[in-house]
Structure formats: structure tokens, C-alpha cells
Input
Amino acid sequence: MIKKLFIGSTNIDFLKVGRLFYRIFIIESFIFLSVAVLSITGVLNINLSVDFTGGTTYQLEAPYENSEIDQVMASSILDVSRYQTFENSNSIIFRATENTQEKETEFLFYLANKFDIPDENIDFQRVGPTFGDEITTKGVQALIIFLTLVVLLISYRYEFKYSLIALIALTHDLLLVFSIYVLLGLEITPSTIIALLTILGYSLYDTVILFDKLNDSIKSSKFSYLAEGSLNKTFNEVLMRSLNTSITSAIPIASILFLGNYLGLSGTLSDFALPLFIGILSGTYSSIFVTVPFLAKIINK
Amino acid sequence: MRRYLKILLLPIISVSLFVLVYYQNLSPKLGLDLQGGISVILTAEEGTDQELIEQAVEIMRTRIEAFGDVQEPEISISGANSVLVQLPGVTDQERAIEALGTTGLLTFRPVLDSSITTGYSPALKVIPSTEDPEKLTTAVKTGVTGVDEVIGISLVDNPEFESYILSINSGYPVIYQLGPAELTGNDISDAIAVFPENEWIVSLEFKNESANLFTELTKKLASETGDRRKLAIVLDGEVVSAPGIAFGVDPTVGITGGTAAISMGNADGGEAANNLAIILRYGALPVSFERSSIQKVSATLGEDTLNLGLQAGLVGLIIVSLYLIFYYRLLGLVAIFGLTSFGLLFYSVITLLGKYQGFTLTLSGIAGIIVSIGLAADSYIVTFEKFKDEIKIGRSFQFAADKAAIDAWKTILTADFVSLSAAILLYVLAIGPIRGFALALGVATIFDLLFTRLYTRNTVPLASSLSRNSRAFFPIKMKDLRND
Output
């Protein structure tokens, strides 16, 4: 099987499989749509970080008992909404909703006292909601311009129809990551937004490679279209290439995730790596299984 | 020969740059999140209009840019009425924060009276005690409101009304009674600090339309005598200086030319004058701020994250290398040599950018670098896979390698163009942390293009001539490869 995969002589009938994946795609779209609607109407809770909601985070490192954390959570100084601890380290992160600065400073000293550490060792972060807004607005701007560019570029290099398929694949990846975040209640930070933008790049890279391969096959065939057999062959051949590029992209990111987890470190780098990792997997999937059914349709029309 | 030159060009540049960087003991400039640093919250009065805060932040950004030596400062609105200022590193932060948070509200106000002759505030009147005429008490004059009852200074300085303001610049305290502001910092078009003789002055130039106002004001003052001939220059509720109009000034003409000067003394080598000039040039903040909290981001957390990033990058690189060797054998070695050289070049360029352009490496920058390792590896894979395809359809190794290298260039050009435009867009649109990421990604993409064009394109044909056996390039027998 591996040998076959390597030579690209796997005999997956993509046109048949395509119909199956088309159904999966319809189901996925339905899920994405309901997640989007439910989170907009507020039924599902989008877990936004303090950068978006405004609030404070306190990060410290000290030996602790679980009872101490319970006491902190019940503290009347601030409304502590969440805490986070790590398996392999003594780090604790508390997050609280916004309050006056006096209260926030009081809480800082309270923590220093409670865990018996000097207060300058506590990393303190206070953010207003506007910061996140700014990032989101700029992110959306970047997204729109970027997508327009992609459509123009792919239309120029290949065909206009191809660019629509690339857009479908991209949207699929973005929505998949978003839905996973909402459904698992993972925290969305500004890093997540940056990561989402990066995912676009990855997903597109894979899609462009597929289009390129397809273009080569069309060029080398005598006709301006592909027979069903050679279309299948092309998809089979490109499968390993897509897998390989995804694997090599995913390895460094996976190493951030696993090393970070092993060393008990969390923070921006992991916030970044997780959506990227999901995005790369999704991009590999979408570049083949989302694009193929659509490609098969338009090519052999 | 030409081919060898092309192959070796980039690795040689990489290694020599790296050696240069290494022997000069340079290392990348680290951001606040990696090396620790100071973070200050400036707070305005509660209930301040959000728009005013946004304006203030914009002004602070231009001020800090004019300041020059602060690396990647981050200034953002934080909470309803606060501004968060983050300054990584430790070079002269105190002065930068000072220059940022100073309101810089400058007004020109006619002097009505002062404490110079009487010795007490013009807002107060002296009442001799009925029992002991030697014993004096003071009381606020009737009709004067909003002043401190003991020293007679206005509690709140509102430039639109008469105020009693203290000056300590002349060496001893003087309280001036000032009329409403006739001109403000908004009337100034430019301000520079100069050292003409013996002391620093900030030389001001009025806007064209305001120059006439200044002339009118000086005309009026030139016809007065004593204290009332003086014009007070007030900065943030303190009289900086109150020069009298020179006696040579003709009351019918006034001072023309649209310039004025503020004396700043000679105590600090011009630092105060330079700060003031920067503040005046970019305008006053529309609201005044207090430094409500200063926080240091501990260096240990930053160091941990940096190490995590470096270790993850290294582990990622090693695994990718093993994978490439397993999968592409000789070609894998080509890729690893290329990637190593890519890594050295990247490190050196980021270090040099840090030294000469003030580029700071933040956490998101490191993420960008790790992402680009993956992208660079992708480019090799695309080339190698094309090579495989060509061999599969029966081409000779030499021909396959040439064709693969040329075809791959086109594909990679398209794919990299997409990455590059994404990076440029992110850089142009983004704020603070995203920029570091975008820059790293953009630089990496350009290097990737260079390496593909020069290194990969010429090395793959060379490597392909080393062996006739497909097992040297792929984990598969020739028979199986062709037997399709």
C-alpha cells in the first residue's frame, strides 16, 4: 500500500469517492452553518480571551494545593472567571473580568501573599476589549484583500472556476477550525486570528500544487479536457505529494505543541500552534477531498 | 563551472554572514515577550470620551517614533480609559514613558498680576489681625473661585478662564495671575530644540493664520507696563517662562514673523528641550494621563518561551531532515544542506535587521520562522516529486532532473507569490505582534524563491548524475517505479 502510495499508483476512484466526499462536505457545511448561527445567536459560547473581552490575567509559578486555587477562585476582590494549571509545571494562570485598577492591584498582592512569592514575579496583564477589536477588524480587512488577490491570481494562472474552488477549500478550512474552537470551548486569542490567516497560506499552497499537477496533465493529454481515467490517475499521483508537503509542514508545528505540553508551557506559541496544526490537517484534507468533487464536475462538463 | 558557482553562491553567502554575525557576538534583538521589559498603564480621568483616547494613542505613537531608540513599542487602548504602553528592553525607558505620557498642553496667556512684588498669591488678600497688627492672615479675595485657600493656586487649570498658576523655573516660586489663553499648542506649526548660546531653547514657529494672533497679542502687551507686559508660556498647568515684551517693541506693530522661544536652561544637556520639542511638534494629548501602574514582564517566562521555540524549531528540523533522508535519500541530503544554509541565512539576516533596522524578534516572529521551515521543505518536495514523475514516465535521470527543476520553479513561484502577498498584506494592515510574524514569513518566502531558483534548480540535476539507481533517490526499486 505504501509502495503504491509512493508511486502514485493507488487505485482510488476519486470520481466515485468524490460523490461520497461531496456528501461529507454537505454535512460539514451544515454543521459549520449551524455552529455559526448558534454562536451568533449566543446559544453556543465563543470562548474569547481577555484580549477581546477585556480583563486581567495573572500568571505565576509557585507550588500550590488545589484548595488554594479554590480559595482564589472564590475570592471576593475580583470576579475570577477561570484558572489554568499545567501537568508538568507549577504555573498557574488566573483570569478575571475587568475591574478598577485598585482592585486589580489588590488582587495582585493577594496572590503574592497567598502563594508566598514576591509580587514582581507575577506576570500581570490587563487588556481592554478594543485591542482585540482592532486585531479582528484588521484581520477581516486582510482576509478580504487576500481572497480577492487569490481569485485574481488563480484566474490568471489557471481558470476563474479554479479560483472559486480554491475559495471553497479555504472557507472550509477556516470554518472547520472555528467550529472546533467553538464546540470544544477552546480559547480564541489574537494568536488564533493570526494562525487562521496563516492557514489560508498553507491550504492554498496545497491547492495550487493540485491545480498545477492537473494543468500539467491537461497539457500533456491530447485533448483540452481529461478523460475520467487520467483525471483519476492525476489525483492518485498528487495524493502523496500533498501528504508529504503536509507532513513536513506539520512536523515543526507538532513539535511546538508536544514540547510545549511536555515542558508545561503554554501561552502565545501554543495558542498559535494548535489552530495551525488543525488547519494543516484540514488543508490537506480539503485540498484533495473538498476540491476533487468540484474539479471533477467542472473539468468533465 | 557556472553551475557550481550558482549552487554554492547562497550557501557561501549564508555561511559568511553567519560567521560575521557570530564573530561580532551579535544575536537577534528580542521582544518584550521573550526578554521581559516594562509595561505601563496610563489612565485618563474616568468617563473620558473613547475618541479622545484613540487620538491620544495616535499622538503617542508619532511621539515614540520620533523618539527613535525604542524597539517595537506597543501602544494600545486598554480598558475604558487607559492606554497600555509596552517597551521591551531597558534602554532609557523612563525617559520614553515620560515623553509619552506628558500631556503637552501648551498655552500662551497674558500675565495680569504676580506674587513678585507682594510675595503672596494675587488671589489672596492680607488681613492684619485686629489684636496684633504684626500678625497677618490671608483669605481668598471675593469673586475668586477655585483656588487653594492657603497658597492661592488654582486647583484646576482651565485655560479658558483666569487662573493662578505657579512657576518655579526662575529659581524661586512665583504665582502668576493669568488671563484666558490667547494661543495654544495647536497654533504651532513646528518646534525644534536649539542651543544658540549658553542655554537650550525650544524655538517655536506659528502657523500662518496664528501668526497674526500672536502679533495682535504682543501689540496689546507692548502698551502695558510691569507684570502686565509679560506673556506667560504655560505647559501642563505650570508656567515654563513669563518673558516681558522687550521695550523696543512698538505697540502699533507688535512682534511679527510668527516665531517665539521657550528658554529651557542648560542643566540636562538639552534632554528636556528635545523632549518638549517632540511633544510640541506632534501636538498635545487631548486628555491628560496618570501613570496608574507599571508592570515588569518577568524575564524568566520570556526565556522559557524562547527556549521552547528554539527547541521546537530544532526538533522539528531534525525530524523533517530524517523524514527527507528516509524518503528522498541523496536528494534528501540536498534538501537538508539547503535547509541548513537557509536557516543560517535567516538567523543572520534577522540578527542584522535587529542591529541596523531595530527589528525585534517576538514570539510570533518565532512562530513565523517555524512555519517557514515547513514551507521551505515543501519546495524541495515539490521538486523531488516532479523528478519522480518524470522518471516514472521513462525519462532519463538527467532529463528528468532538468525538467523537474524548471517546472518546479513555476509552481513554487505561484505558491510563494501567494505566501508573499499574504505576508505583505499582514505587514501593512497588522499591528504590533502580527507584524513580526508577517516580516519573518515574507523574508523566508523571498529566501525560498532564491534558494529554489539558484540552489535547488542546479543541485538536483547535479545530484541526479551521481547514480543510475533509483534507490539512491527513492525508497523503491527502479523496476517498481517504472512498472506502472
